[in-house]
Amino acid sequence: MKKILNYINGELSPSNTNTYLDNYDPSRGMVYSQIPDSDEKDVERAFKAANAAFPKWSKLPKEKRSAYLLKIAELIEENLEELSRAESKDNGKTIQLAKSVDIPRAAANFRFYGTGILHYAAHAHEMEELAINYTLRHPLGVVGCISPWNLPLYLFSWKIAPALAAGCTVVAKPSEVTPMSAFLLSEICIKAGLPPGVLNIVHGLGSKAGNAIVAHPGIKAISFTGGTKTGAHIASVAAPQFKKLSLELGGKNPNIIFADCNYEKMLSTTLHSSFSNQGQICLCGSRIFVERPIYEKFKNDFVERTSKLKVGSPESSDSKIGAVVSESHMEKILSYVELAKKEGGSVLCGGKRMILEGEFENGYYIEPTIIEGLSYDCRTNQEEIFGPVVTLTPFDTEEDVLHWANSVIYGLAASVWTENTSRAHRIANELHTGIVWVNCWMLRDLRTPFGGVKSSGVGREGGFEAFDFFTEPKNVCIKYN
Ligand code: NAD
Predict the structure, then answer these.
(1) What single-letter DSSP state applies at residue 368?
(2) What is the pLDDT, as a whole number, of residue 481?
(3) Is CB count within 10 Å lower at the N or C end of the chain?
């Protein structure tokens, strides 16, 4: 069975205890590899390597740091096929999705930040005839990057790339549920000749290896993406040490559809925004609000189109929906369908586990599920489910739909569908979210600020915001004469 290894000080090695955790292929429901069960001693070793590498890496001309990142991007693209297969097997997402979205985006992250750093500049503030202020931005030092299982390499690289480009050295931990593409990335970094200790990847449990990264007094900042509860715990450990924190957390995103929308575009995009990656994207629109005049038509068309989405092996090119990530996550999603029924909801389609044939019979598959008849404030409509489950609610007024959309503790993203431009501006302005998409979904310009408000997180990633995070500003004020 394949054994994944830690990547510390430029070398692949087991954990200090030489113990392993099982890693599952969710499409078959079986263990297929093992990962190091690392602890604080492994994190300490990774920290020491990162700390020793920092002076040289941070002083390397940015053009040279950029060249390493561009080389990594190139190698990711060269290994598109292998990485996509690995990501799919580890996560349950279709190979098709990994190949068209996850892996190309991981390469794009390295390329974007590898070139972005060449354009990053600090500010100067002149006090007329009196003084000049200029701001230096120095890399923080050793930083920690911790990522979730839903978009494994995509989100792992989204943190690592800006940290490295900014001149920080990194101790990173991918999710223990989907460690494989991070392991392959460590092999790519070795091939790219990245100097030892610049990037260190420690595998293992969040409560052990993850916690040791967050608690380590020498690690200056934590960039974390994951669940809101974990984010709160991380903040409680990191804040007393005054670490910089970037927290990208859960969501319960509204998809607001007005009767005057471009109906066909809206319908096909809403299928994606509801069920892409089995609904396991933090940006998926899980609460669909539809203006009353088109509610019945939308409901019928949406149910018909959803019922046709093929749930199948992630390896098959005609599968649109693969497996959800784990057995426990499948149980959690199904328990929410039961809760929705208890809360008075009607399941219009899906709602059950699906058993495939042959080698995939033990895989974790769920039919895409649409539920209606729930109040906006019931638990099903307030809590993050993070699976292929959406609710439909008709609305009559802008006031109602805004109140319902903003009623959750989360505030990550929202979609609005209307051809009325004034209304689009008005609604976008009133939504309590960090991101609003009008007549589209998940259309990403990597320069834009990415992140949420309320319990969806603190801080922003993307563009120069990420460089601001991984650097410390220092103002120098020089008086004339
Ligand atoms: P999770 O919080 O369980 O785990 C995320 C990462 O944190 C994993 O690497 C895990 O090992 C680690 N971790 C767990 N406990 C830790 C601890 N005590 N100390 C340090 N690290 C710890 O989240 P998940 O289940 O992997 O991912 C799903 C969640 O991520 C969902 O809530 C989803 O909305 C959220 N998410 C948010 C965004 C965003 O950009 N806002 C993007 C993707 C996913």
Answers:
(1) -
(2) 84
(3) C
pLDDT value at residue 431: 98
| Alpha-carbon distances of 237 from 141, 228, 282, rounded to whole Å | 19, 14, 24
Kindly write down the DSSP assignment for every residue of 224-279, as one continuous string: EES-HHHHHHHHHHHGGGT-EEEEE----EEEEE-TTS-HHHHHHHHHHHHHGGGG
Q: Is 373 helix (H, G, I), strand (E, B) or coil?
A: coil
Report how far apart, in Å, the C-alpha atoms of 275 and of each of 225, 284, 312 are: 21, 7, 14
For the chain, which ranges sit under pLDDT 50? Answer: none
Tell whether ligand 1 has an atom less than 6 A from the beta carbon of residue 150: yes
Decide whether any atom of ligand 1 lies within 6 Å of the 238 Cβ.
Answer: no
Could you tell me the distance, in angstroms and rounded to a whole number, from the CA of residue 375 to the centre of ligand 1? 28
pLDDT tens per residue across span 375-412: 999 999 999 999 999 999 999 999 999 999 999 999 99
Query: What confidence score (pLDDT) does residue 285 get?
Result: 98
Return the DSSP state at 117.
G
Phi, psi of 72 (to 5 degrees): -60, -45
Give dist(CA 153, CA 149) in Å, integer.
9
The amino acid sitting at 38 is S
Amino acid identity for residue 349 in this structure: C
Hey, which residues are catalytic here? 248, 282
Which sign, positive or negative, has the C-alpha torsion 160, 118, 106, 33? negative
Q: Distance (Å, rounded) from C-alpha 290 to C-alpha 128? A: 56
Per-residue pLDDT reduced to its tens digit, 29-85 = 999 999 999 999 999 999 999 999 999 999 999 999 999 999 999 999 999 999 999
For the chain, give the longest Cα–Cα distance: 83
158 closest CA partner among 193, 182, 187 = 182
Pocket test for ligand 1, best of 91, 225, 233, 330 (most atoms within 8 A of CB): 225
What three-state secondary structure class fits 199?
A: strand
Helices (H), 279-326: 295-307
| Ligand 1 pocket check for 226: Cβ under 6 Å | yes
Tokens of 470: 């991984």
Q: How many CB atoms lie within 10 A of CB 59?
A: 9
* pLDDT score recorded for residue 318: 95
Q: The whole model's pTM is what?
A: 0.98
- Residue 355 Ramachandran class (φ > 0 left, ψ -120 to 50 alpha, else beta): beta
